[in-house]
Write a structure and sequence with these properties.
- The protein is about 40% helix and about 15% strand.
- The chain is built from 14 helices and 13 strands.
Length: about 375
């Protein structure tokens, strides 16, 4: 069987959630012991060595200035279609094989429309609705996303399968003091810090995180040495109010924005943190939660959407709309050594349950279904 994969999102230099999902999953699919052949479609030449060089995979580079998916990739599907097309991080082309599979990552725009621009909301709604109806099978990152597809778009339950993403092997505790120091120095970070990782946009709930941190600074805990707050991630959209709130609260010297952190530096950044805070309003999965756990860093995260699925009993959950509750959860983890130790140990076990190899095997099973 020839499996075609839209690999266009996996080649971005600064990969975030869905792009990293695409990259990691494709890499594992190519290395599975299989008799199937793969054809990867790119809109630009990939970096040399980005994917394993295996005899059963070919690369097809088909650049096009605009509307690459619906014009150029559609033409390729009409001209020389694979047996099955897999789109892990985007939308199905208008012309696609009868057997096509797509991953839907989340429907957060329906719950928090104010966290997106009007044009972005329209695009996400139309493309996700189209994916759910046009694909022969849908992979969902979580049970929360699966239920959202059924509830909001009337998607057929039998064609949606939950396949959890994985936590990469490079995420492990980094104990080398020199490596930790070099990472902090590279991003100009303090010795002690509370960490958030993710693209800067409203759904990450970063204004409330900043406000919760300001409350901590006003509390009795601030009489001791309170770690600074590091919000790592590239700028997404509607982010200016985050910086404005930091200035209004007069905590600019204690809140750091290092920008995008490379995948190579993330294990050290996570390992060096006192805790990871992910108070998102909505997440389709939430990989930083698992990555922090794998690095031995305790986690505070929201009690909504997919995050309880991901965190299990290995994180302290908080209501994302409750600023005082977020502050209280952070303070608890900073004060309570026994709680920290317990969550760290449970975190190692929880993270180990999610692997990219399992994700690839689950995806391949769906790609082979009824073919």
């Amino acid at each position: 069987m020839l499996i075609g994969i839209d690999a266009s999102r996996a080649v971005l230099a600064q990969r975030t959630g869905t792009e990293n999902y695409s990259y990691q999953l494709i890499r594992r699919l190519l290395t599975l012991d299989t008799t199937h052949r793969y054809r990867l479609y790119f809109n630009a030449p990939p970096e040399a060595g980005l994917f394993p060089a295996v005899p059963h995979a070919e690369q097809r580079i088909i650049p096009f200035p605009r509307l690459w998916t619906h014009a150029r990739l559609s033409w390729e599907m009409w001209r020389d279609p694979p047996d099955v097309l897999f789109v892990p991080a985007h939308v199905l082309p208008l012309i696609h094989p009868r057997h096509s599979v797509v991953t839907v990552h989340d429907l957060g725009y329906l719950y928090y429309p104010e966290a997106h621009t009007p044009l972005s909301r329209l695009y996400l709604d139309v493309s996700t609705r189209y994916n759910a109806r046009a694909a022969s099978y849908v992979i969902a990152d979580s049970e929360a996303t699966r239920q959202d597809l059924i509830r909001h778009y009337g998607a057929e339950a039998g064609k949606i399968t939950v396949v959890y993403p994985g936590c990469s092997e490079e995420f492990r505790p980094i104990c080398d003091a020199e490596a930790l120091h070099k990472t902090r120095e590279r991003y100009r970070l303090p010795d002690s810090y509370i960490l958030h990782v993710g693209t800067l946009h409203p759904r990450k709930n970063l204004v409330r995180l900043v406000e919760a941190y300001a409350l901590l600074r006003q509390s009795a805990l601030a009489k001791s040495t309170l770690p600074d707050l590091v919000i790592a991630g590239k700028k997404g959209w509607l982010y200016n109010h985050i910086f404005q709130r930091v200035e209004e609260l007069d905590i600019t010297t204690h809140v750091h924005f290092p920008g995008y952190v490379s995948q190579e530096d993330l294990p050290a950044l996570l390992s060096g943190a006192q805790l990871l805070v992910m108070p998102s309003l909505y997440e389709g999965f939430g990989l930083p939660v698992l990555e922090a756990m794998a690095c031995g860093t305790p986690v505070v995260c929201s009690n909504t959407s997919s995050l309880p699925e991901v965190a299990g009993d290995a994180a302290l959950l908080a209501e994302p709309l409750d600023t005082e509750g977020i502050a209280e959860a952070m303070g608890r983890l900073l004060r309570d050594t026994a709680l920290r130790d317990g969550l760290i140990q449970r975190g190692f076990h929880q993270a180990s349950r999610f692997t990219w190899e399992d994700c690839a095997r689950g995806a391949l099973e769906i790609l082979m279904a009824k073919h």
